[in-house]
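Run log // design_07
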């Protein structure tokens, strides 16, 4: 009797080999997928690290520039303060001599007043000569300090750009895959008086003299000693008032230059505060082509896992170009709770990373008012939701962090 015919549906010989073949192909695909996804993760991590490094490096340079402005302001105040003290002494001597000259006309005090005039007159002349010499020095010093202020304001944003590009594209830790990068704004924020640079502007000339007078008076009030506190406060107030006597002769356009202060308003009149984009740097870096060099292994792995080939790319695949761009944001800020008037007198400017937000300059004009109108009508729900998204990416972008 011959062998019986086997049924194709009942025959189980070789089934394990078939399952093993499919499992092997699946495992190979998973391995290739892991390879591709791993390379993509490493690629994005390095791109993001580079963007973070670039934005933070630019913000650090911005903070150093603001601290250098502070140092120049302090040097301005010290040099002007020396002249202020001398001129105040000179004015006080002139007042005393005028009082003594009036007493000479009297019978009782004429002899003593004449003797004091003979003693104080050469002293007043000497103080005046010293004041004139110091004034010439202060003029030259303040002209140089004013030029230094301009150089720092215009030059440090360019230095921030160079430092950011170096941190992103020329460091071994980020190369490969980063090939280029830049930060925005390129040369600092736009200034109310025109041009770009660090967000500072010239303040009132009298700020320097007032600050010196108040500073010396407050220092005298707080001197630790056995002298009664009320007496120290009285003396401090008298010293402050005495120093203001020489303000008219010292704080003049021809003698001292204006210190720098943080800009008060923008072109549109809105106030400038910490956290606004005037203190922000946004970094963008660009990576290597994913089809070249080391990174092509990952792309090939994903295509092998998908059973695809070179011609299998589509529009979704082309979206990988977005992955070649990294972006981050950082800011420089004044550390402390002091009022705005103190920001340019203390070296407390620091830098930190911030959550990325779009620039205020990119916000389409009129979008806020249009959304407010649509929201007021309340008839189109989808439009209201769209306006909520627009609000998140516009209003929040221009508000303080």
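design_07 sequence
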């Amino acid at each position: 009797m011959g062998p019986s015919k086997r049924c194709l549906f009942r025959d189980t010989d070789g089934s394990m080999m078939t399952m093993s073949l499919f499992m092997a192909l699946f495992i190979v695909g998973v391995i290739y997928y892991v390879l591709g996804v791993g390379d993509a993760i490493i690629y994005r991590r390095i791109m993001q690290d580079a963007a973070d490094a670039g934005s933070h490096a630019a913000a650090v340079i911005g903070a150093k520039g603001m601290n250098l402005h502070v140092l120049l302001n302090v040097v301005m105040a010290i040099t002007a303060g020396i002249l202020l003290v001398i001129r105040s002494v000179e004015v006080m001597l002139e007042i005393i001599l005028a009082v003594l000259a009036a007493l000479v006309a009297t019978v009782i005090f004429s002899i003593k007043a004449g003797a004091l005039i003979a003693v104080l007159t050469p002293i007043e002349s000497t103080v005046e000569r010293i004041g004139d010499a110091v004034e010439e020095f202060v003029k030259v010093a303040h002209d140089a300090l004013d030029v230094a202020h301009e150089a720092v304001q215009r030059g440090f944003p360019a230095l921030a750009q160079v430092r950011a590009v170096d941190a992103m594209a020329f460091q071994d830790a980020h190369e490969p895959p980063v090939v280029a990068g830049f930060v925005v704004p390129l040369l600092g924020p736009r200034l109310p008086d025109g041009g770009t640079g660090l967000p500072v502007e010239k303040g009132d000339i009298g700020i320097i003299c007032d600050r010196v007078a108040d500073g010396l008076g407050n220092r005298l009030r707080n001197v630790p000693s056995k002298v009664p506190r009320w007496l120290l406060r009285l003396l401090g107030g008298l010293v402050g008032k005495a120093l203001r006597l020489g303000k008219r002769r010292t704080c003049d356009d021809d003698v001292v230059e204006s210190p720098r202060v943080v800009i008060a308003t923008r072109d549109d009149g809105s106030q400038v505060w910490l956290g606004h984009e005037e203190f922000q740097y946004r970094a963008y870096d660009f990576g290597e082509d994913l089809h070249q060099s080391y990174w092509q292994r990952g792309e090939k792995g994903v295509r092998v896992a998908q059973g695809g080939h070179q011609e299998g790319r589509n529009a979704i695949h082309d979206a990988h170009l977005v992955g070649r761009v990294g972006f981050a944001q950082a800011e420089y800020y004044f550390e402390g709770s002091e009022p705005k008037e103190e920001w340019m007198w203390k070296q407390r400017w620091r830098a930190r990373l911030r959550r990325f937000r779009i620039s205020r300059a990119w916000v389409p004009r009129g979008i806020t008012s249009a959304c407010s109108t649509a929201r007021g009508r309340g008839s189109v729900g989808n439009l209201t939701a769209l306006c909520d998204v627009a609000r998140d990416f516009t209003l929040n972008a221009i508000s303080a962090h």
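The chain has nine helices and six strands.
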